[in-house]
Task: inverse folding
């Protein structure tokens, strides 16, 4: 029997395990940062964690609110600006891994975080490109986290380049770091990887209790599946304990987090709290 | 600006009145944190119109300006969406209604425009990979002017480039500045200094105006020199509800309240009436906050100390004459030195000429 963990904790642990010690890792906000933090606290103490805002080599004490949150940590080694983070660190090849959240993804790991369901003028805006396109182009490997997103045949908006049309098209076009591209993707249901030859996404492991057919039905193409499926990594007590100490709010589904937050919010918005007036 | 003995210290009201005009290109200088909500709300109260807003990390600053009918165009890389699929944003509502135009860049390409503008170049090379993205291919109001492609004269490779941006005014909030406008900022540097340096006018608000001596002993934190700055405003909690390194954390509950209200247009307008239009200044805003919620939520998010290790910029000596009045190097007194000038016939009386 393995220690019990929530789905959210399992996802964080699976991503953290991808990080190797001494790697330089660029983190997007949310799950990526908690995973980076977990890796640094457990098997990769020398990993260099970075954000695009120019906060280089840090160790958060609480989960950051966003990619420019230095109040979640105590100090960092190198204060750089955004422009130079993208050039001297990213373009020059010093990002070993980028870990980013995504909205829509296609068969070859191309990504949309900008607009869905129409054009930029008519569709629903997601957040926007942010820093993603340039990191996905030059990080040696990119890990994609797909929390609420979807698989589509054709992206509504092509924000960030994965393997383009597949096979060797990405390397051949000469625009990107050679050999770079998405290496792993995780959703609340499965771990995916990319075929080394075709660069097509395939399912590698299912989260416990997930029905394979259910996952495949959400994918509009004939999703390739590893045979045999790899067992999902078994979490350790140490990893679970770290996440619950560092980011308890990331251990629960967004719905529950919102429910608890709204409860607190209504208390707050209701006016001066008894015994705490100024 | 140079040579004039200007007093740059003024109120937010005066600074916005004088330095932000209808039709201006305005860059919100802050990058995600320290957002100058004090200045943003004043722009709205003064009913500035037809602005082109440059924003890299739009949260409620951009939402408010749009709802305040101040904006015709937005150049952005990221803007908040409240309430997921079922919710929305003022940016999306106005864009769909054809009331504003929006051009989307990526974080790097947006910053590159300001860097080019700050340095006086007409363009800046960006990374080749962007040419595969719709950020490059899809054009809104900027059309052909959004990106270009040049051939590197040395390698022969195609290099995508972005046009320089030189906004009319940068509004920014920082931790401290002196009365001359030397503004100091620390934390996530983002694109803050580039936004200031690219702009024709710069309006700086800060938590505290400090003595020039403080600035001089820590020049590494200065992001824009005084001679580039038009106005300096002292306004504590100017960035609330945003956080500011060393001063206060994000007011998460207040922020969540704004987010909840922004799920609908009416909700957001009701929020704006209470927190923007009905309050004439940041001081009034803070008073209202304390009336509603007490002082405790604000106190709870005050930053605790975590100081930088001091560095020694000192020198062995600060005058050519030591404490005994002897010249360094030659070790003579002032008297002896002037006697030498006399003895060697080096002194000239200009009034006595042949």
Result:
């Amino acid at each position: 029997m393995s220690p019990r963990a929530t789905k959210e904790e399992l996802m964080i642990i699976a991503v953290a395990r991808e990080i190797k010690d001494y790697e330089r890792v660029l983190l997007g906000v949310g799950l990526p940062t908690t995973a980076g933090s977990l890796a640094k606290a457990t098997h990769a103490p020398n990993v260099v964690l970075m954000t695009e805002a120019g906060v280089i080599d840090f160790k958060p004490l609480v989960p950051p609110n966003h990619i420019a949150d230095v109040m979640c940590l105590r100090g960092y080694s190198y204060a750089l600006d955004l422009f130079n983070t993208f050039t001297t660190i990213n373009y020059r090849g010093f990002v070993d891994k980028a870990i980013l959240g995504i909205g829509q993804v296609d068969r070859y790991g191309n990504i949309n975080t900008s607009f869905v369901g129409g054009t930029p003028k008519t569709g629903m805006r997601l957040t926007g490109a942010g820093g993603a396109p340039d990191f996905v182009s030059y990080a040696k490997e990119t890990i994609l986290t797909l929390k609420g997103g979807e698989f589509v045949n054709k992206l509504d908006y092509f924000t960030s380049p994965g393997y383009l049309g597949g096979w060797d098209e990405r390397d051949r076009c000469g625009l990107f770091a050679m050999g770079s591209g998405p290496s792993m993707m995780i959703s609340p249901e499965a771990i995916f990887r990319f075929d080394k030859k075709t660069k097509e996404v395939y399912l590698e492991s299912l989260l416990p209790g997930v029905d394979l057919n259910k996952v495949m039905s959400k994918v509009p193409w004939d999703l390739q599946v590893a045979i045999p499926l790899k067992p999902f990594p078994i979490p350790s007590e140490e990893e679970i304990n770290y996440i619950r100490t560092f980011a308890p709010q990331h251990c629960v589904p967004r719905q529950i987090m919102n429910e608890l937050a709204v409860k607190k919010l209504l208390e707050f918005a209701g006016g001066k709290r008894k015994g705490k007036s100024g | 600006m140079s040579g004039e003995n200007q007093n740059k210290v003024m109120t937010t009201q005066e600074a916005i009145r004088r330095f932000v005009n209808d039709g201006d290109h305005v860059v919100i200088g802050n990058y995600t944190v320290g957002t100058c909500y004090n200045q943003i709300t004043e722009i709205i109260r003064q009913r500035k119109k037809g602005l082109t807003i440059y924003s890299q990390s739009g949260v409620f600053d951009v939402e408010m300006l749009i709802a305040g009918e101040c904006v015709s165009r937005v150049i952005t890389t990221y803007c908040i969406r409240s309430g997921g699929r079922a919710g929305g944003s003022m940016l999306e509502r106005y864009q769909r209604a054809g009331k504003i135009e929006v051009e989307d860049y990526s974080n790097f390409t947006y910053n590159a425009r300001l860097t080019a503008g700050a340095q006086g170049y007409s363009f800046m090379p960006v990374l080749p990979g962007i040419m595969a993205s719709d950020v490059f291919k899809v054009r809104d109001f900027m059309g052909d002017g959004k990106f270009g492609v040049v051939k590197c004269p040395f390698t022969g490779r195609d290099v995508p480039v972005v046009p320089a941006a030189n906004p009319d005014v940068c509004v920014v909030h920082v931790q401290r500045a002196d009365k001359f406008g030397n503004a100091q900022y620390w934390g996530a540097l983002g694109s803050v200094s580039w936004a200031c340096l690219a702009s024709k006018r710069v309006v700086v608000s800060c938590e505290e105006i400090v003595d020039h001596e403080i600035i001089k002993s820590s020049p590494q934190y200065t992001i824009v020199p005084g001679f580039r700055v038009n106005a300096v405003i002292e306004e504590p909690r100017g960035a609330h509800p945003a956080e500011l390194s060393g001063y206060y954390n994000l007011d998460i509950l207040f922020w969540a309240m704004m987010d909840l209200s922004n799920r609908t247009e009416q909700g957001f307008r009701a929020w704006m009436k209470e927190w923007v239009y009905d309050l004439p200044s940041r001081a009034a805003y803070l008073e209202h906050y304390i009336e509603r919620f007490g002082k405790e939520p604000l106190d709870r998010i005050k930053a605790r100390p975590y100081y930088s290790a001091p560095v020694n910029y000192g020198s062995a000596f600060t005058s050519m004459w030591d404490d005994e009045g002897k010249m360094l190097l030659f070790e003579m007194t002032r008297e002896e030195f002037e006697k030498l000038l006399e003895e060697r016939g080096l002194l000239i009386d200009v009034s006595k000429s042949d």
In short: Chain B has a mean pLDDT of 95.
